[in-house]
Amino acid sequence: MLIERIEMYICGICLTTAALTSFAAAFIDPLFADRRISTKQSKLRYSFKEPSSHDSKFGRREYWNEFYKSEEEFSWYTGWEDLEPFVRDLVPCEKSHILIPGVGSDRVIVDMYDAGYQNLTAFDYAKAGEGCSRKLLGDDRVREEGEHHSPGVILLVADARNLPFEDSSFDAVLDKGTLDAIYLSGGRDKKLAAEYLSMAVSELSRVLTKDGIVISVTVACTGAIQSTFDSCDVWKQIRDGTPYITEDGFATNNVDATLLAWTIAKKQDLKNKDK
């Protein structure tokens, strides 16, 4: 029952992960002056037909909208208290523009904001998931489109396989169970599951800046996620799930999940990878 529930919730956040934020960000601070995301959602490049409820209920918005009505708050795998040392280790600048896929009802976005990371964009596949996050954050932490001169979280509904953001829009991505869910949404069709995951990973590489970082907190589909990043030449892995200790003495084995991380590879990294 526990494993079944994990798969259900993960997939929920997974596809929930598809609800994306179309964000226009620019703080008074000049550091944000050139960091604007188009608020115009142009025609999507792909149109995904939802699976039947028999094939995979996790890939259906209707299922997740109903699900989130009864799950208003839940932290996937681990909370911000355990994650914070490792996020700060990899993304030390609090003004970094960070994307959080599949935000759903996870409280981590609230705690992250209160800890100083206030230039956030988050999305979910299900409207109800976006609504849960909006309720958790409250009006004071949410920034609507067009509010360029104040910190805050932009919330949207979108599909992680087809993000409505311009290229090089984000400095970092914090994935917490969403990539797991995307893979699980393929159901028993593992080829389709791998294809969905590959689309999402490809989109992350597109929307990240040239030095961008993806942090993935995973449990259910660690092997599939690792293989997908390995198959794409644009990534350089910087955290591989083995125990890691920060300079401040925090160890990853205190996180109840596998922590993986990649950065966009430089040309020299790609040459070394080919050797």
Folded structure, characterized:
There is one protein chain. The chain contains nine helices and seven strands; from the N terminus they run αααβαβαββααβαββα. The N and C termini lie far apart (46 Å). The relative contact order is 0.18. The protein is an alpha/beta fold and 275 residues long. α1 packs across α2, α2 runs parallel beside α5 and α7 (190-207) crosses α8. The protein has helices at residues 2-16, 61-70, 80-90, 108-114, 127-137, 178-184, 190-207, 222-230, 267-274; strands spanning 98-100, 119-124, 152-157, 170-176, 208-218, 235-240, 258-264. β2 (119-124), α5 (127-137) and β3 (152-157) form a beta-alpha-beta unit. A seven-stranded mixed sheet has the order 3-2-1-4-5-7-6, with helices on both faces. The radius of gyration is 17 Å and the shape is globular.
Summed over residues and divided by their number, the pLDDT gives a mean of 81
Sheet with the most strands, sense and barrel status: 7 strands, mixed
Distance between the terminal alpha carbons, to the nearest Å? 46 Å
How helix-rich are the residues, as a percent range? 25-40%
Oligomer: single chain
Shape: globular
Radius of gyration: 17 Å
| Unreliable runs | 1-6, 8-47
Strand order of the largest sheet: 3-2-1-4-5-7-6
Strand-pairing-aware structural class:
alpha/beta
